[in-house]
Design a protein that fits this description.
Layout lengths: L2 E7 L9 H6 L6 E2 L2 E8 L5 H13 L3 E7 L6 E4 L1 E3 L26 E3 L4 H10 L4 E4 L6 H16 L4 E7 L3 H4 L10 H17 L13
């Protein structure tokens, strides 16, 4: 039986909830396309998040890994294309760390591309009536830190394990405190993540579809 690891973060930056974990925890122990889904919460802390992630990878030895994070201001399900080898924190993490212009992995590649079928995932989510796009940046905070660290770990394995990152909008109960910011209901986010898992498990070659950006 295949195993899917899906991770999310604890709340940060003064929020009482993190929509990524609220959505992901409902997928724990689910069966999707014959695969067993395991949800894991990561601390919103540089380095410690990767320690927890790497320990979980070593224990579970999953066949697919999707990391999920909150992106305040995003209007849709954002499937990330690339992670870059830099920590440049606009705000401190949950232990007060605020690295600036520091490499995630010394002497590591400048970037890693997601190995998920990102265009197929976006297409499938859109066909279900849920807004979704390919995102060209995962930022330079803990989300990018985890995406890069994940793909670095999987590259060292040199196996068939796919991995990548998805950003999601705020929940409505968060957005009411941030005038003008978009939100998405938890049930909608959960459905989108289920579809992402299903597509990543069943689509071998990604779609060749428009998904670029002009800025």
């Amino acid at each position: 039986m295949k195993t899917v690891l899906i991770t999310a973060f604890e709340p940060f930056d003064g929020e009482r909830v993190n929509p990524s974990w609220e959505a992901v925890r409902h997928l724990h122990e689910r069966m999707i396309c014959g695969a067993h889904v395991v949800a894991k919460q990561l601390p919103c802390v540089f380095d410690e998040s990767l320690r927890v992630l790497n320990e979980t990878l070593d224990t579970l030895k999953p066949d697919l890994v999707i990391a999920v994070g909150q992106a305040e201001g995003r209007t849709d399900i954002s499937v990330e294309r690339v992670a870059i080898n830099i920590n440049d924190a606009r705000i401190p993490d949950n232990t007060g760390n605020q690295p600036i212009d520091e490499a995630i992995v010394e002497d590591g590649p400048a970037a890693y591309f997601s190995t998920l079928p990102i265009k197929a995932i976006v297409e499938g989510i859109r066909e279900a009536g849920i807004p979704a796009t390919v995102s060209q940046t995962a930022g330079t905070y803990v989300c990018n830190h985890v995406m890069y660290g994940l793909l670095h770990a999987l590259a060292k394995q040199k196996g068939p394990v796919r991995g990548g990152f998805i950003h999601i909008p705020l929940l409505p109960e968060q957005a009411v405190k941030h005038q003008g910011l978009a939100s998405m209901p938890l049930q909608t986010v959960g459905l989108a993540l289920e579809m992402a898992i299903s597509i990543a498990l069943t689509v071998e070659e990604d779609r060749r579809l428009e998904g670029g950006a002009t800025h």
